[in-house]
Design a protein that fits this description.
Helix content: 10-25%
Number of helices: 1
Distance between the termini: 58 Å
Structural class: mainly beta
Order of helices and strands: HEEEEEEEEEEEE
Radius of gyration: 20 Å
Strand content: over 45%
Largest sheet: 12 strands, mixed
Length: about 210
């Protein structure tokens, strides 16, 4: 009986932890919008849906400026993040291709919120083959726990190709577009921001 009670208690603790973890993830907010004002580490942003968001940047927050790049910058094994949407024939067409530096990278493929029906593919570029209206890029991504798969994505002349460069909080100015992949909510409803991308040569995808 005592063992059964211990097992039930452990199960309850595990379940509570899982619920807490899911709740914490659900509190993460993705930010797309334009800066309204900056006061020290506090950045007010008007989101694309019209809401006013209060961003509180950590003292160590990383600021990256979004700049233009080209498909020529995508070499074999380059880390890329591609936002795509399906064509009528099912082909994935890249809306935006972001080039990332070598190093740890969150590799995956799944639904994305840029536009209805869009996808995000984070992975390693493998090959690029000429197509009638662009280049077909093969991207390898991870499927947990230890599998990989590929997506073939058409990059057209309309595809926005970008990368980021190191910036500072001084680059955050009213009117510039910003993107935050995910920030947890603080008790007062503001967002605790550790990483933010800001318009430099071009805006982050809105």
């Amino acid at each position: 009986m005592r063992m059964a009670r211990s097992i039930l208690t452990a199960a309850a603790v595990t379940a509570a932890f899982a619920v807490t973890s899911v709740a914490a993830q659900a509190q993460n907010v993705r930010v797309r919008g334009a800066i309204e004002s900056v006061d020290g580490n506090t950045v007010m942003v008007k989101s694309r849906d019209g809401a006013s968001l209060k961003l509180v940047l950590k003292d160590t927050a990383a600021v990256r400026g979004v700049v233009k790049a080209s498909l020529a910058d995508v070499k074999a094994a380059t880390n890329v993040a591609i936002t795509s949407r399906p064509r009528a024939d099912g082909t994935l067409e890249a809306v935006e291709l972001r080039i990332f530096p070598p190093g740890p990278f969150n590799s995956f493929h799944g639904d994305w919120d840029l536009t209805p029906g869009s996808f995000m593919t984070n992975g390693s570029a493998q090959t690029s083959v000429a197509a009638v209206d662009g280049q077909v890029l093969t991207v390898e991504y991870k499927i947990p726990p230890d599998k990989t798969d590929i997506k073939k994505i058409l990059v057209t002349p309309k595809t926005i190709i970008a990368t980021t460069v190191a910036g500072s909080k001084a680059d955050l100015k009213p009117g510039l577009k910003v993107f935050v992949a995910g920030a947890p909510k603080l008790p007062d409803g503001s967002l605790d921001v550790a990483n933010i991308q800001v318009e430099k040569e071009i805006p982050p995808p809105q």
